[in-house]
Write a structure and sequence with these properties.
Leucine Aminopeptidase, subunit E, domain 1; 5 helices; Macro_dom; globular; Macro_dom-like; binds ligand AR6; Macro domain-containing protein; about 170 residues
Length: about 170
């Protein structure tokens, strides 16, 4: 698996799957979640509602998959990052679970190219550097990483981009 870095609006990317930093309601919100639902159209929301009927809410650290509606990608994987809320012992593990569970779903759906936003580092206020360290470590040590061809970290804000740029310099995958 190649790990690559991008600075872009994730909704513009033409890959097999983009990941959404959702909330447990799966009904949309602000940030990247708002952009994905806005640009992807009502098909994504309808698919999320069906999942809610089947399994209820999506817990923190878990992931679900839907159509990407009008977006150029094939799928959207919605995962719920932890709210930082002054930290706490399991926040790091919950964030790592977002990456692992999203990759598990990707493999189940034969997804070869996947893009992650910087989960939890916006409205949920997870410290950006710590979140980047967890994200990179989790994907680089993911057990089935060879089943994915390309994994992109899509940074939106300059601060995240610079952090990833620095951390990925030393990453050989
Ligand atoms: N493309 C790529 N990244 C983006 C985009 C975009 N179009 N827009 C924002 N980001 P956030 P969270 C970056 O707040 O912290 C929602 O209301 C942004 O710069 O989207 O996990 C949900 O419904 C930041 O680095 O997600 C939840 O309630 C990163 O995406 C809550 O926010 C994540 O910021 C989730 O909060």
């Amino acid at each position: 698996m190649k790990i690559k870095l991008l600075q872009a609006d994730i909704t513009t990317l033409n890959v097999d799957a983009i990941v959404n930093a959702a909330n447990s309601s799966l009904l949309g919100g602000g940030g990247v979640d708002g952009a994905i639902h806005r640009k992807g159209g009502s098909e994504i929301l309808e698919a999320c509602k069906k999942i809610r009927t089947r399994q209820g809410k999506c817990n923190t650290g878990e992931a679900v998959i839907t159509t990407a509606g009008k977006l150029p990608s094939k799928f959207v994987i919605h995962t719920v990052g932890p709210v930082w809320n002054n930290g706490g012992k399991n926040k790091k593990e919950l964030l790592a679970n977002c990456y692992k569970n999203s990759l598990d779903l990707a493999i189940e759906h034969n997804i070869k190219t996947i893009v992650f936003p910087n989960i939890s580092t916006g409205i949920y206020k997870f410290p950006k550097r710590l979140a980047a360290e967890i994200a990179i470590k989790t994907v680089a040590t993911y057990e089935y990483k060879n089943k994915i061809d390309e994994l992109y970290f899509c940074c939106f804000d300059q601060e995240n981009y610079e952090i990833y740029h620095e951390l990925l310099k030393n990453e050989h995958t």
